[in-house]
Design goal:
Layout lengths: L16 H10 L4 H4 L3 H14 L7 H15 L3 E5 L5 H12 L4 E6 L2 H13 L6 E5 L2 H11 L8 E4 L6 H11 L8 E4 L2 H5 L1 H8 L2 H10 L13 E4 L4 E2 L2 E2 L7 E5 L9
Parallel strand pairs: 1-2, 1-4, 2-3, 4-5
Antiparallel strand pairs: 5-9, 6-9, 7-8
Helix pairs in contact: 3-5, 4-5, 7-8, 8-10
The chain binds S-adenosylmethionine.
GO biological process, one term: methylation
Enzyme class: transferase
Family: Belongs to the class I-like SAM-binding methyltransferase superfamily. Cation-dependent O-methyltransferase family.
């Protein structure tokens, strides 16, 4: 059936598997035991991904690492760009809630994926704590921060949409003045594989190098702040593919306290 209004299927996604996941979960004989239990909903999503069609979720190895970062920093609000079927929304939402946080906000461009995610978040018993907003990350961030003033600082934010959007979106956050030295933690997945070299270059550059870069880059209407300095961590952990598979590496970035100039 032609789908003139839907984004095209990808090799490993958006081909109907995400809705099939819902049917599979909701027809399980143990659906009543799964209901209201985030860990069991996540285990069911993992089981589907292993048995039927791979899903582009953060997965248990990287997920466990990020929940330990949440345990350590205890963000009040956790923002995520790219929600897909809601695996990370459930995992991180539950971690933020159990650490006394206020809210998980996920931004997802694809309304069909947001609908699937909302259904699974509801099943996990996290409705009310996890909010999924439909729209492109840059538009929603502008609305939440500049227009509605709902977010005045970013405690913790995860980049997990498409890698080419990581750098423009971090530039936008710099422009909006919500990155707080000593507070904000930015996380990003798939930095090495498939890779986000332009994002990584920006996050690791000195203010001097950033000023030079900006002379040759087209930033459109964005206003990156070259004086924001990030501290980069590349965590090592075991994955199902062995110790530190390149595809599983990602960064934890902090605003350097010394800079103290964000959003000026
Ligand atoms: C890798 S998946 C997210 C996986 C999810 N974080 C998890 O671990 O369970 C990437 C998602 O980003 C979404 N996406 C792509 N471009 C986006 C944009 N500009 N704004 C928000 N979401 C976007 C895609 O629709 C897709 O669902």
């Amino acid at each position: 059936m032609p789908k003139p209004n839907s984004p095209p299927s990808m090799k490993f996604a958006l081909d109907g598997r995400e809705v099939d996941l819902l049917h599979w979960i909701y027809t399980r004989p143990d659906i009543k035991e799964i209901s209201g239990n985030p860990a069991k909903v996540l285990a069911a999503i993992d089981e589907y991904s292993n048995a039927f069609s791979v899903l582009m979720n953060i997965g248990s190895a990287k997920g466990a690492h990020i929940t330990s970062v949440i345990d350590q920093h205890k963000p009040s609000v956790f923002l995520e760009l790219g929600v897909y079927v809601g695996y990370s929304a459930i995992l991180f939402g539950q971690a933020v809630r159990s650490n006394g946080g206020k809210k998980y906000i996920g931004i997802e461009k694809n309304p069909e994926m947001a609908a699937v995610a909302n259904q699974l978040v509801d099943l996990a018993g996290l409705r009310g704590f996890v909010q999924i907003i439909v729209g492109p990350s840059d538009e929603v961030l502008r609305e939440l921060i500049r227009e509605r003033n709902e977010i005045t600082q970013v405690d913790m934010l995860m980049f997990d949409h498409w890698q080419e959007l990581y750098r423009p979106d971090v530039w936008l956050l710099e422009e909006l003045g919500v990155l707080v030295p000593g507070v904000t933690v930015l996380l990003a997945d798939n930095i090495i594989m498939p890779g986000a070299p332009d994002y990584r270059e920006w996050m690791e550059a000195t203010p001097e190098k950033k000023r030079k870069l900006l002379k040759s880059l087209d930033v459109g209407s964005l206003r990156p702040n070259p004086d924001v300095v990030y501290e980069t961590t590349v965590p090592e952990f075991n994955t199902v593919f062995g110790k530190v598979s390149r595809s599983m590496m990602f960064f934890t970035c902090k605003i350097n306290k010394r800079t103290g100039c964000c959003g000026d």
